[in-house]
């Protein structure tokens, strides 16, 4: 029995072209980019080229890209860095109840240290109410942090409208774009975002890498101390080979975007249609239209997350109950709790399936067949 990976929202397989490029750099270009000799200058050239690719992918300036260890660090730097640097202007931050824990736990830390945080509700579709955002803005609000695509449901937030609302306010606009980057076309100027977080391992790049876009006029305080790397905003010798691998993954994602969108839409249709063919009872969580094509979150009535995931794994199907950072937890999903209510059955009977490089039409169909058989057996 072949194992089938349907958890690309947690992490993705590294692309063979990325491995090849990283191996070349690891074996040939080992200089420190801060060194002035030829080895260091070559490493710096590679780093600068990768930074330009990152910037171009979101319509930014290369000076506005800060390399980080991943999406979590990028979120922390965006939220804590701006909160600390702008505390004299105000101590109010707005975010949502459905953010990744990299944002939620950071916001909670600020609350314990004298800041006020407003957590916006979401509708049953998984999107925020723009009027609620407007009502909560004040002259003390220094930052609004709203994720672009939810990691559990795949629902896309109304980014343009949020940017327009904040364009007439002094608060910075940060978005965790980890789940949208690579699939959605992103232009930071069009969206009017000031800070944007990205992670490499979500787009078939290496783990332990990401970047934070920070608009040039954003006042941000460094959270690490040491050398003067990343224009004094993030100390530490850069992971040149990993960053070049990340660059390769970005180039692949950009060139294959349209093809992947069509492919993932097909995978999603095959998966859902197969469940329907077997008369499986399920509902889709989240907005049906405003979502990325590679993530579906399904609620199976009268089922239990823990039992489902255990049986899926035994059958060779890898899926998730939500964020990989809380994998193994049987607590209700905080995202689905915000969308519905605390005791709603969907919070404990929903599974996230996410498609990507490890999939083809045949194994998506096979995975759906196995899921259907398990649901039918557990229903008896």
From TrEMBL:
Is this entry keyworded Iron-sulfur?
yes
Cofactor(s) needed, names only, are: pyridoxal 5'-phosphate
The signal sequence is none
Query: Which molecular-function annotation in GO is an example for this chain?
Result: iron-sulfur cluster binding
Q: Which residues form the Aminotransferase class V domain?
A: 4-365
Question: Which EC number(s) does the record attach to this protein?
Answer: 2.8.1.7
Which family does the entry's similarity section mention? Belongs to the class-V pyridoxal-phosphate-dependent aminotransferase family. NifS/IscS subfamily.
Which protein are we looking at?
cysteine desulfurase
In its UniProt entry, the species of origin is given as Gracilibacillus halotolerans
């Amino acid at each position: 029995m072949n194992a089938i990976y349907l958890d690309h929202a947690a992490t993705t397989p590294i692309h063979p072209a990325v491995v090849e490029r990283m191996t070349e750099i690891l074996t040939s270009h080992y200089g420190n980019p801060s060194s002035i000799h030829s080895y260091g200058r070559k490493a710096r050239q590679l780093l600068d080229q990768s930074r330009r690719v990152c910037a171009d992918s979101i319509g930014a300036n290369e000076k506005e890209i800060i390399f980080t260890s991943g999406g979590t660090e990028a979120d922390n730097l965006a939220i804590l860095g701006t909160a600390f640097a702008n505390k004299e202007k105000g101590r109010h931050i707005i975010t949502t109840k459905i953010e990744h824990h990299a944002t939620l736990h950071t916001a909670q830390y600020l609350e314990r240290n004298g800041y006020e945080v407003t957590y916006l509700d979401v509708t049953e579709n998984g999107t925020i109410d723009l009027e609620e955002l407007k009502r909560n803005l004040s002259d003390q609000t220094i930052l609004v942090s709203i994720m672009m695509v939810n990691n559990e449901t795949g629902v896309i937030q109304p980014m343009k409208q949020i940017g327009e609302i904040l364009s007439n306010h002094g608060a910075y606009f940060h978005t965790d774009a980890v789940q949208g980057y690579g699939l959605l076309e992103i232009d930071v100027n069009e969206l009017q975002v000031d800070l944007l977080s990205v992670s490499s391992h979500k787009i078939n790049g290496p783990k332990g890498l990401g970047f934070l876009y920070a608009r040039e006029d954003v006042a941000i305080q460094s959270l690490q101390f040491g050398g003067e790397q990343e224009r004094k905003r993030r100390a530490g010798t850069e992971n040149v080979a990993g960053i070049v691998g990340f660059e390769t993954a970005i180039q692949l994602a950009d060139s294959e975007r349209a093809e992947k969108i069509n492919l993932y839409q097909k995978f999603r249709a095959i998966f859902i249609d197969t469940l329907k063919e077997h008369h499986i009872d399920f509902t889709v969580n989240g907005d049906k239209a405003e979502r990325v094509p590679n993530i579906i979150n399904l609620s199976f009535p009268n089922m239990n997350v823990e039992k489902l995931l255990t049986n899926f794994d035994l059958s060779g199907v890898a899926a998730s109950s939500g964020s990989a950072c809380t994998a193994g937890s049987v607590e209700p999903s905080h995202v689905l709790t915000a969308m519905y209510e605390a005791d709603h059955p969907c919070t404990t009977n929903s599974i996230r399936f996410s498609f990507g490089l490890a999939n083809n039409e045949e194994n998506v169909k096979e995975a759906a067949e196995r899921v259907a058989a398990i649901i039918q057996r557990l229903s008896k």
